Amino acid sequence: DACRSASKDAGCDDNVRFMGYLAQEDVYAWYQACDVLVLPSEREGLPRCVIEAQAFARSVVATRVVGTAEAMDAGRTGFLVDNDRLADMLPLLIRLAGDEKLRDTLGREGARHVRRSFTLERNVAAIHSLYQELCHKPERPVHDNARRHFVSPNVLRCGVNHSFAHRQIGVLLRKQRAAVRARAHLPHLRRRRALRCRRRRDG
Fold first, then answer.
1. pLDDT above 60 for 7
2. pLDDT higher than threshold 90 for residue 3
3. Buried b (16+ CB within 10 A) or exposed e, 96-131
4. Spatial distance between the Cα atoms of 14 and 77, rounded to a whole number of angstroms
5. Any idea what DSSP says for residue 115?
6. What angle do CA 33, 39, 45 make, to 5 degrees?
7. What is residue 34's predicted lDDT score, i.e. its pLDDT?
8. Is 78 within 8 Å of 106 (Cβ atoms)?
9. How confident is the model at residue 112 (pLDDT cuts 50, 70, 90)?
10. Between residues 157 and 69, the one the model is more confident about
11. Chain centre to alpha carbon of residue 95
12. Does residue 103 contact residue 36 with C-beta atoms inside 8 Å?
């Protein structure tokens, strides 16, 4: 409702559609029909829409949040802007709207990027490699800044309960991702803290 109201207030009703939930085949049809994917998110896990749009050779304009930055190759498959500077998207979108050759170049590179980085075979190999590393190496931290988080080799020894091992890996990777995300948001938090201090001082 808030988005519909904003669209109406901006006088964009004739140019904006809110499609709601769509079946997968309908989503793919919209990828084929579009020129650019725009994703102005404040936060993301790993945005599948960015990967799918690139697979359809569509360029991407998005905010520089952790998951999105991982899913695309900024400058080669699309453009990223700081998530507190959404207005910076406008000149990029105007540029892409008027430059079909640039859209095609970014789109082709995006399709290559997905084929290189997000194939089923590559993901299976990466997971298998992680299991092998954890099974055959002694106690080892997952992240330099999280040295207290260890996985016991007795838990992850090959032939033991791998569903439990998978849960353990998931927990440690979530902690690592949370640490990365916290560092990414630190400059924004510092700016907000400085703004609050100025308001208190001036008020």
1. yes
2. no
3. beeeeeebeebbebbbebbeeebeeeeeeeeeeeeb
4. 30
5. H
6. 120
7. 93
8. yes
9. very high
10. 69
11. 23
12. yes
